[in-house]
Write a structure and sequence with these properties.
Blueprint (H helix, E strand, L loop, with lengths): L1 E6 L3 H16 L4 E7 L3 H4 L11 E3 L13 E4 L4 H14 L6 E2 L4 E2 L4 E2 L4 E2 L4 E2 L4 E2 L4 E2 L4 E2 L4 E2 L4 E2 L4 E2 L4 E2 L4 E2 L4 E2 L3 E2 L4 E2 L4 E2 L7 E4 L4 E4 L4
Parallel strand pairs: 1-2, 1-4, 2-3, 5-8, 6-9, 7-10, 8-11, 9-12, 10-13, 11-14, 12-15, 13-16, 14-17, 15-18, 16-19, 17-20, 18-21, 20-22
Antiparallel strand pairs: 22-23
């Protein structure tokens, strides 16, 4: 049995819990999630997580109560900057992370995947693509050949990317967005259903068909 703690308290953490259930059901894996850990857990008392059979253990500091050589964490946070912050805090305490990858996901043997990946149903990563640490992708997200994907990137369901695209660190890609062979700068946000037909500068919001660029704080 492999025990894990889910780092996160939002909707994506619930999806990760379902992903673990599916892995246990479909494969011979025996993964036991023992609880959720996230910032401000004591304040909101796990509002989103009340109907699960897994307890909220507390905030990051409670990790000190566990044997982190035996119990690993799963990074279940969609927002890249927040995920980076929580992972870095957990690592300072001594946490180690594991990947949770749905058995229907397809990863080329010529692709490389970093630490702490989380992939849901039918994610596809093609040949020659290099994926950084703490990457997460939701159902049916597809990534073409020879891409470079940075650390702490999150892709929502049915994202599509063309071969050769480069996605920088801390990028959030919204549902059904399509990225052609262009560079996405660090910290950018790609809006839902956006069509990316040119490079996106760092820390910009790209939305629309074709996508236009906006400062992150613009509406």
């Amino acid at each position: 049995m492999k025990q894990v703690i889910i780092l996160g308290g939002g909707g994506f953490a619930l999806e990760v819990l379902d992903n673990i259930d599916a892995i246990n059901r479909i494969t011979a894996a025996d993964i036991e999630p023992i609880g959720f850990v996230y910032e401000d857990a004591d304040k909101d008392k796990g509002k989103l997580l009340r109907n699960t059979d897994i307890p909220v253990l507390g905030d990051i500091s409670c990790l000190r109560e566990y044997d982190l050589d035996k119990i690993h964490l799963v990074a279940a946070i969609a927002r890249p900057a927040w995920k980076r912050k929580m992972v870095e805090e957990a690592k300072k305490i001594g946490a180690k992370f594991t990947s949770i990858i749905h058995p229907t996901t397809t990863i080329s043997k010529r692709a490389k995947i970093g630490e702490g990946a989380v992939m849901m149903k039918y994610v596809n990563i093609q040949s020659g693509t290099v994926v950084g640490d703490f990457f997460s992708a939701d159902d049916f997200a597809g990534f073409g050949h020879n891409m470079i994907i940075g650390d702490f990137v999150h892709a929502c369901p049915r994202v599509g990317t063309e071969g050769g695209a480069v996605i920088g660190n801390d990028v959030y890609v919204g549902i059904r967005a399509t990225i052609l062979s262009h560079n996405i700068g660090e910290g950018a946000i790609i809006g839902a259903c956006a069509l990316i037909t040119r490079d996106v500068p760092p820390n910009m919001l790209a939305k629309g068909i074709p996508a236009k660029h906006y400062k992150i704080n613009e509406k």
